[in-house]
Design goal:
The chain is an all-alpha fold. It folds into 2 domains: 2-35 and 130-202, no CATH class; 38-120, no CATH class. Helices cover 64% and strands 2% of the residues. The protein has 8 helices and 2 strands. It has helices at residues 2-8, 15-34, 38-58, 69-83, 91-120, 132-148, 166-175, 187-202, and strands at residues 155-156, 163-164. The protein has a two-stranded antiparallel ribbon. Strand 1 (155-156) and strand 2 (163-164) form a beta hairpin. Helix 1 (2-8) crosses helix 6, helix 4 (69-83) crosses helix 5 (91-120) and helix 6 packs across helix 8. The two termini are 16 Å apart.
Length: 212
């Protein structure tokens, strides 16, 4: 970790403080990693909501007003069969049961669709939680560079497209201390992660950031 010792030299930061922040980043990754894939959950809730909406619409066939003839026949047949159930006992009670269920179905449909919309707003296009932990990982490196007077260079070779610079070298060195699943599969992948995260960190205006 020569790069770290050199970067921290002349600052008030200590390696223990550095590792403490690193531990928090790993904990954040663990929390994100353990969360379920939200996209299929949102799809399931949306499907449930649409189905319940459809059921609620069909079950309104016994109410006053204009309704589809098939809906009216479906509800009529359903009420007739329900009335034969000893626990229901009559056509009047069957109608009340259907009306109650229709109201509950409409409420559940609304809740499902709102829940699905809320989940979709929490994630990116992939359906997985955003990599907030890597933004903080990049912020850690940038903070070290700033306090150590190091230029956090991150460039790309015009010919080969390969990344280079202090930030990439530091990130790859630090990733050795992360969980294997957190590490970039290649130098190219690491450079891409850093490029995105660096922009995110630089756009954090007026937000408190942890410091080394």
């Amino acid at each position: 970790m020569c790069w770290l010792n050199c970067a921290l030299k002349g600052t008030s930061a200590t390696p223990m403080e550095f590792y403490g922040w690193l531990g928090r980043i790993i904990g954040q990754w663990s929390a994100e990693h353990d969360r379920p894939d939200i996209e299929p959950l949102a799809k399931t809730l949306t499907a449930m909501g649409r189905e319940l909406e459809g059921m609620s619409r069909i079950l309104s066939g016994h109410e006053t007003g204009l309704h589809d003839r098939d809906d009216i026949e479906v509800v009529s047949k359903l009420a007739t069969i329900l009335a034969l159930d000893p626990e229901v006992g009559s056509r009047q009670q069957a109608d009340k049961l259907i009306a109650s269920f229709r109201g509950d179905a409409a409420k559940l449909a609304h809740a499902c669709l709102v829940s699905a919309r809320d989940l979709k707003q929490q994630v990116g296009k992939s359906g997985r939680p955003r990599w907030d932990w890597y933004d903080d990982f990049a912020a850690l490196l940038l903070e070290i560079a700033a306090k150590g007077g190091v230029e956090p260079q991150l460039g790309k070779d015009r010919i080969t497209g390969a990344g280079y610079g202090w930030l990439l070298d530091a990130a790859q060195a630090l990733e050795a201390f992360l969980d294997p699943q957190m590490r970039s599969p290649s130098a190219e992948a690491c450079a891409k992660r850093l490029e995105r995260a660096k922009k995110t960190v630089e756009q954090r205006v007026g937000q408190n950031q942890p410091s080394v």
